């Protein structure tokens, strides 16, 4: 595996985005280095979802750059993100209904096939070999995340927590070097928090740069190496989880003017 020093991960520089007269993002700059978990937190309306959409190419920024491992990504070109080894999960569950768990995960692997269209996978010896490799890789991922017993199940038949895990595994099938996780804990029962934390921590251990956008403060503080706080579209502060949690500006942003303790701080 290439060292994390050679793969700097994700770099966002001076990103701005406005809708009409509303400035949603203003000069946002942050890093999500390889092999680490960088969290982005902030009150509702801080611009977190817009930032995720800019990074993943679903929204075109007005100014600024999104760079992955030294390569500037073209603004507003979501289809090119897989080519540059950037994956993303969504706040709302995004799965291919009517397909099995194995087929869902394989779709991630198909997206990184060299210059192939899905239709090419059923023609010729090379295409058949590619199809076998894709299925084997998908099954290996399902075994890693203890989902192999669900391989032939329709994905919509799964409990919500397992379905969200399938979405994450599908992104990993793309073999990304950077992943953006948009509120992975949203809608999950408290009992799922620990397995989720272990899964996300495992991504960083594999050398992936993780940008975690999350409302669950306990999850953020337990696994992140660096935390960036957005407020009204700007970076309010950043630092270690302990530094951010005790920052008076962060406490005020969440709890209102005059608040002095972070004990009730929940995102």
Task: Please state how the strands of the largest beta sheet are arranged side by side.
Answer: 6-7-8-3-9-10
Query: What is the CATH topology assignment of the largest domain?
Result: Rossmann fold
Helix content: 25-40%
Number of DSSP helices?
A: 8
**Which residues sit in consecutive blocks of at least 5 with pLDDT less than 50?**
1-5
Distance separating the two termini: 36 Å
**CA-based shape:** globular
CATH C-level category of the largest domain: Alpha Beta
CATH superfamily of the largest domain: P-loop containing nucleotide triphosphate hydrolases
Strand content range: 15-25%
Counted beta strands? 10
CATH architecture of the largest domain: 3-Layer(aba) Sandwich
Biggest sheet overview: 6 strands, mixed
Mean pLDDT: 86
Any idea how many domains? 2
What is the H/E order? EEEHEEEHHHEHEHEEHH
Radius of gyration: 19 Å
Structural class: alpha/beta
GO biological process, one term: L-valine import across plasma membrane
Protein name: ABC-type branched-subunit amino acid transport system ATPase component
Organism: Nocardioides soli
InterPro entries: AAA+_ATPase, ABC_AA/LPS_Transport, ABC_transporter-like_ATP-bd, BCA_ABC_TP_C, P-loop_NTPase
């Amino acid at each position: 595996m290439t060292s994390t020093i050679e793969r700097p991960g994700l770099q966002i520089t001076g990103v701005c985005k406005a809708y009409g007269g509303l400035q949603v993002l203003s000069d946002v700059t942050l890093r999500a280095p390889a092999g680490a978990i960088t969290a982005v937190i902030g009150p509702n309306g801080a611009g977190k979802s817009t930032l995720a959409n800019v990074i993943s190419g679903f929204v075109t920024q007005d100014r600024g750059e999104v760079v992955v491992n030294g390569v500037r990504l073209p603004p507003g070109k979501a289809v090119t993100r897989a080519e540059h080894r950037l994956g993303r999960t969504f706040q709302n569950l995004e799965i291919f209904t009517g397909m099995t768990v194995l087929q869902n995960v394989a779709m991630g692997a198909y997206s990184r096939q060299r210059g192939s269209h899905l239709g090419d996978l059923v023609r010729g010896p090379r295409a058949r070999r590619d199809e076998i490799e894709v299925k084997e890789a998908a099954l290996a991922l399902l075994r890693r995340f203890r989902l192999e017993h669900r391989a032939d199940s329709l994905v919509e038949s799964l409990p919500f927590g397992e379905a969200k895990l399938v979405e994450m595994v599908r992104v990993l099938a793309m073999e990304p070097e950077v992943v953006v996780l948009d509120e992975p804990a949203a809608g999950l029962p408290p009992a799922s928090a620990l397995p989720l934390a272990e899964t996300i921590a495992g991504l960083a251990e594999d050398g992936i740069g993780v940008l975690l956008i999350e409302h669950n403060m306990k999850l953020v503080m337990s696994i992140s190496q660096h935390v960036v706080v957005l407020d009204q579209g700007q970076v309010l502060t950043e630092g270690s989880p302990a530094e951010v949690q005790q920052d008076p500006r962060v406490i005020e942003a969440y709890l209102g003017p005059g608040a002095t303790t972070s004990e009730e701080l929940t995102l």
